[in-house]
Amino acid sequence: MEVGDARSPLIRATRAPHEGFAVVRILDDGQASRRCRLLVACHGPAEEFDGLARDLRAARPQDDVEVAFQGGQLLVLQMVAPLAEGAVALGFMGVPAMLRESGFEGFVDPMVVRGGRARVRVLVAKHLEAPEALRALQEVQRALGATDFRVVRVGPVQPAELAHVIRRMLPPEQEELLRLAASMGYYDTPKRSTLENIAAKVGLSISPVHKRLKAAEETLVCAHVQPAAKGSGGRRRSRADPLAVDPAQPWEITLRVRAPDFGPAGFAHAVPGSTLILQPLSEDRAAGVTRHLVAALVPDDLQMKFLSGVEGRPEVSHVHVVGRERGCIAVRVEARGRSGYGLGWWSEVWGGDAALRPILVEGDDILLRVVLTRPHAEDRLLARLSESARAGHWLEHEILHARPLGSPGAPPEVTDPLTTRQLEVLRVAHALGYYQTPRGCTLEGVAKTLGVSANAIHKNLVLAESKIISAYLGASF
Question: Smaller CB count within 10 Å for the chain: N or C?
Fold first, then answer.
């Protein structure tokens, strides 16, 4: 959904003619602590967000607004808002909590604010019919008193797509180049840039640019056509990597960890092929209580085994099933202590300097995506990771991705899903080897199989690829 509310200083700061945008992440939804903690990353010229912290404090004097980082084209704010007055008082930032209070609990994407509007996306952890979802959104609109409120999309998402979003299938050098190409209009119809333009921008020859983009396209298309297949993962950045992040600004890092006693890791090890996603929700440090949302992507006959395993953990004090569908069960877990589902050790090590995004558990691997809210030099980062390994009983860990918290451009808009015809053409092209390296067939070969012109095949494939790439770059759980 999209919300425009002139009462919000953050929304006002992005209205035309401003070109900046902001990304709002919920670090703690306040379920356990009754204090909602938010991270606001503002991207754009400094003058566009000058005085934003002051305006936010004036709008809500009860909130704690701290400037965590300011420099260049990035301003990072941390906000702590008491929930005593209810989620409605938070405006668009309270929409996920309002939906949760109505029984629609799920994964919350970072909220994007640009052009004077806030885009809020919630992936509800249970099946909903469109009329039911729309009624809930109408209640949210009435509660907010927002006259500028637009529902962008209500529709299903395959559970396996969640894992692909969190996994981030592309190596960093491919993803950064793909993001640049998309921002330059290379995937628009008609194209607004060429390989030559992109190569000149990054200072490379055309051949390596084409090779990287083709490899990225192949990975994303194959993952879309075969959702059960794992992506290419990532690689450890070398010191010579030209895309290495600047230690003078906040980072976002992705870790691969092995820790048998971490949340649902034991179940993932015992049930080959299972995929589990854990989203930290809230923590009451004084009481030693943490709350999480866990989605298990497992066959229906194994869902009770997963549920019994969670309920039988000694640190787990409460389990509530929030959604159960074919191939997926989602539960809210409340836990105490430091082991298993108790993640108190994380805040002890990092405090407010880092936040965990949804965690992917597959087999013996745990994929941790960490947002560092303050700059970390490499030695300090590595020292804290070592401390985390000791506190969390990790057997081993490695850094897969590391990138600046900011991105070169605003995230893409929400795109429409592929049409039935586009998906059909994509699957046939994939089956015939069109996306292999070297290609197993030509456009003419795909056209002959489907009995249509090569021009029609090319049009459908270009539109399908553009939607898949846009969806991947815009997906940021």
Answer: C
Residues 6+ apart with CB under 8 A from 116: 4, 11, 12, 14, 15, 16
Query: What one-character-per-residue DSSP string does 262-315 give?
Result: BTTHHHHHHSTT-EEEEEEEEEETTTTEEEEEEEEE--GGGHHHHHHHHHT-TT
* Nearest to 26, CA basis, from 98, 116, 74, 85: 98
Segments of the chain scoring below 70 in pLDDT? 158-169, 172, 226-248, 405-416, 474-477
Q: Under a CB-based contact definition with an 8 Å cutoff, are residues 24 and 34 in contact?
A: no
Terminal C-alpha separation, the chain: 16
Determine the pLDDT at residue 61.
92
Instruction: Tell me which DSSP letter residue 367 carries.
Output: E
The full length of the chain comes to 477
Task: Supply φ then ψ for residue 68, to 5 degrees.
Answer: -85, -30
Both tokens assigned to 396? 């081993």
For residue 140, the SS3 value is helix
Name which of 294, 308, 297 is nearest 273 in CA terms: 297
Q: What is the pLDDT of residues 233-282, one digit of tens each?
A: 333 333 334 335 556 678 888 889 999 989 999 999 999 888 999 999 99
Contact 23, 111 (CB under 8 A): yes
Contact between 369 and 252 under an 8 Å Cβ cutoff? The reply is yes
Paired sense of beta strands 275-284 and 2-4, if any: unpaired
pLDDT of residue 471: 75
The DSSP secondary-structure symbol of 103 reads T
Residues 6+ apart with CB under 8 A from 203: none
Distance CA 131, CA 128 (A): 8
d(CA 149, CA 138): 9
Q: Match 């379920």 to its residue by tokens.
A: 31
Q: Which of 79, 100, 162, 69 is nearest to 362 (CA)?
A: 162
- Between CA 406 and CA 412, with CA 410 as vertex, the angle to 5 degrees is 130
Residue ranges per domain, the chain? 2-156, 251-404, 420-474
The H or E element that residue 469 is part of is: helix 454-474
Tell the residue number behind the tokens 């989602």, with chain if given: 330
Identity at 291, one-letter amino acid code: R
Contact 260, 341 (CB under 8 A): no
φ and ψ of 271, to 5 deg? -120, 90
Can you tell me the distance from the alpha carbon of 294 to that of 332, in angstroms, rounded to the nearest whole number? 6
Q: Across the chain, which distance is largest between two alpha carbons, in Å?
A: 67
Which tokens go with 72? 């260049």
Sign of CA dihedral 311, 315, 319, 325: negative
**Among residues 282, 261, 288, which one has the least CA distance to residue 100?**
282
Q: By C-alpha distance, which of 158, 103, 178 is closest to 135?
A: 103
